[in-house]
Amino acid sequence: MIDSHCHLDHEPLLGNLSDVIKRSKEVGISKLLTICTTVESFDRIKNIIKIDPMIYGTFGIHPHETEESHLIDKNYIINQINQNEQIIGIGETGLDFFYNHSNKERQIDSFKAHIEASMDLNMPIIIHSRNAEDETYEILKSYKSEKLKILMHCFTGSLNFANQLLKLDAFFSASGIITFKNSLDLQETFKNIPLDKLLVETDSPFLAPIPMRGKKNEPSFIKYTLEKLSVLKEKTDQEMSDLTTKNFNKLFNL
Taking a C-beta distance cutoff of 8 angstroms, is the pair 152, 172 a contact? Predict the structure, then answer.
């Protein structure tokens, strides 16, 4: 298994990294991708990726944080990534018009800078999209290119949105949300996403899956999300583990 999206620089994971890594290996995780959200986050990630070869990282500014990161452009992003091995993706970036913690236009400008950097580097872009399906799709469509490698993180969008994104050759990451009892529409959407476009993630320390709800999430809990996805896709857990691992390695060229 591969946890395609976790935040190891957040507590309580950061303060217990050795135990978190140990438990990850015990359940069969081979890689962890720890995701950047701010410049300060990246400073921590640069140290975390040195701890164990199973850990990879990204650079990106979360849409909530774009107000404070107005000086970060395409060239800045490219420079940060080129200086650091084990940094294999760009994000998380995207649009969040549910909370609107940052100005809408600033979010869009930042999103475009990340997209352009990802195309220049031929590197996957990890996208957060909430209450912004139309805007997210229109921006991505405007950049349609063979170099655009899209990963929709913690996908909770509509089936129509998924179908639009599939036209752009996007990948979709299932989080613990698919285990929730009230996520029937989302479960139905994942039933319709092709097997070769699926990844799994925890988004830990957030969104702990059933039966771990109420606890701080961690990468080892990914087995519950994988088990649910296996049921939805009518595959064994081992088959789903092999498929999602193969998809991750293909997307990130590992």
Answer: yes
